[in-house]
Amino acid sequence: MTEAVSRCGYVAIVGRPNVGKSTLLNHILGQKLAITSRKPQTTRHTMLGIKTEEAIQAIYVDTPGLHKENEKALNRFMNKSASQALRDVDVVLFVVDRTRWTDEDQMVFDRVQYVTCPIILVVNKVDRMDDKSEVLPHLEWLTAQLPNAEVVPVSALHGRNIELLEQLIAERLPESEHFYPEDQLTDRSSRFLAAELVREKVMRQLGAEIPYQVAVEIEQFKQEGKILHIHALILVERDGQKKIIIGDGGDRLKKIGQESRLDMQKLFGSKVMLHLWVKVRRGWSDDERALSSLGYRFDD
Ligand SMILES: Nc1nc2c(ncn2[C@@H]2O[C@H](COP(=O)(O)OP(=O)(O)OP(=O)(O)O)[C@@H](O)[C@H]2O)c(=O)[nH]1
Ligand SMILES: [Mg+2]
């Protein structure tokens, strides 16, 4: 019997906001690593999710959804990170939401059409497809747009067709030694992941506007015996937002804390004591220096 060929490479997951990129990554990894929510622009930073199975190592790059409208420094940062993720990768997963095609999908398409590596067009959320008769013509139309791309309908949430997708990815990865140890899951620190979990709860629990004006900073991350002590600061832009996040008698902040702590315990495999504070830092989302001190790095 011959040994399986070792393969390894980078797989960028791109698409407009809310199409299910991070949900897809989590499903492939078999655990929750990336944060997800119903609101667009949940992911702000690119993040690696590494999956090693025997001879195959796929290094996924989750990216912020490419989007129009807002010209704040934070939005420029997100779009730039997503575009940069297309450089030097071995496979591109271009994720779209069923038969919906918007100006933002077109923006992604405009960038993706120039890549020279294999592209897989992932048509997600097929579990919610109401009118099945629209599917075939749309898949044909997509194939005509990107003739060299493979088109795969999936449901990231329910795990439909994901094995097929992973097989198509593996076949397209170059022969190579693995870049990461087989038990490494991501390039991001535990502090980063902790901050993201708090931000996810804010995204999920608050109304339309506020989540976009919130950042989370970890001030302390310390294991003492069996307990991991985490202090997180929730930064907002205005006083009114601080009140809303804290809620009546601290109710909302308590709920954000409880839910974050449960997810942290699962991810870190340790009992967690979590302390949350809310603080106003005016204009952080449109100030490159403030952004950079919060870990939004504008390198290159
Ligand atoms: N029904 C259904 N919902 C899905 C599926 N995949 C993702 N979703 C939902 O779509 C919403 C957005 O998912 P995310 O994974 O956060 O989307 P994203 O593309 O990472 O979004 P950004 O980070 O904002 O760019 C969430 O509410 C998910 O639960 C799917 O296959 N079926
Ligand atoms: Mg995301």
TrEMBL record:
Localisation: Cytoplasm; Cell membrane
G3 as annotated region, ranges: 62-65
Ranges for region G4: 124-127
Cited InterPro entries: G_ERA_dom, GTP-bd, GTPase_Era-like, KH_dom-like_a/b, KH_dom_type_2, KH_sf_prok-type, P-loop_NTPase, Small_GTP-bd
Keyword set includes Cytoplasm: yes
Record-annotated KH type-2 domain positions: 198-282
Membrane among keywords: yes
Region entry G1, spans: 15-22
Renumbered residue ranges of the record's region G5: 154-156
Residue span, Era-type G domain: 7-175
Gene3D superfamilies reported for this sequence: 3.30.300.20, P-loop containing nucleotide triphosphate hydrolases
Membrane topology value: Peripheral membrane protein
Predominant cellular place of this UniProt entry's protein: cytoplasm
Listed Pfam families: KH_2, MMR_HSR1
Chain segments carrying region G2: 41-45
Domain of life: Bacteria
Keywords annotated in UniProt: Cell membrane, Cytoplasm, GTP-binding, Membrane, Nucleotide-binding, Ribosome biogenesis, RNA-binding, rRNA-binding
Positions annotated to bind GTP: 15-22, 62-66, 124-127
Subunit structure, interactors included: Monomer.
Function in brief: An essential GTPase that binds both GDP and GTP, with rapid nucleotide exchange. Plays a role in 16S rRNA processing and 30S ribosomal subunit biogenesis and possibly also in cell cycle regulation and energy metabolism.
Family, similarity comment: Belongs to the TRAFAC class TrmE-Era-EngA-EngB-Septin-like GTPase superfamily. Era GTPase family.
HAMAP family: GTPase_Era
Protein name as annotated: GTPase Era
